[in-house]
Design a protein that fits this description.
The protein has 2 domains: 39 residues, no CATH class; 60 residues, no CATH class. The chain is 47% helix and 0% strand.
Length: 101
């Protein structure tokens, strides 16, 4: 912007700081929401329902359900979304194997 004296003053550092703050605050917000939205299940109730069901359907989401959740904002600077190639933990693979048996 121009001041009354006709000289130009700019604040690119302020703009960069504001952008960084926005990204940091957004990532922090997403992390908090992720933790707060996670509900623990009653394993006994799930097992009883599974055992009594005649038909079963499993709907799994790879990003946090069977592999480690990617950090919020990991792909903000990339054009594609996806996972880092993490594999499910051995106990998750074992549980899925038993469910499919």
């Amino acid at each position: 912007s121009e001041s009354q004296s006709g000289t130009s003053t700019s604040t690119p550092a302020l703009t960069v700081d504001l952008k960084k703050g926005l990204i940091d605050n957004t990532a922090a917000y997403l992390a908090r929401e992720s933790v707060m939205a996670f509900a623990r299940v009653n394993h006994a109730a799930i097992k009883a329902a599974y055992d009594s069901a005649k038909h079963r359907v499993f709907v799994l989401d790879f990003n946090g359900t069977i592999i480690i959740k990617e950090p919020p904002g990991k792909y903000l600077k990339r054009e594609i979304l996806g996972t880092s190639g993490n594999k499910p933990q051995p106990h998750v693979v074992e549980a899925l194997t038993q469910l499919c048996a």
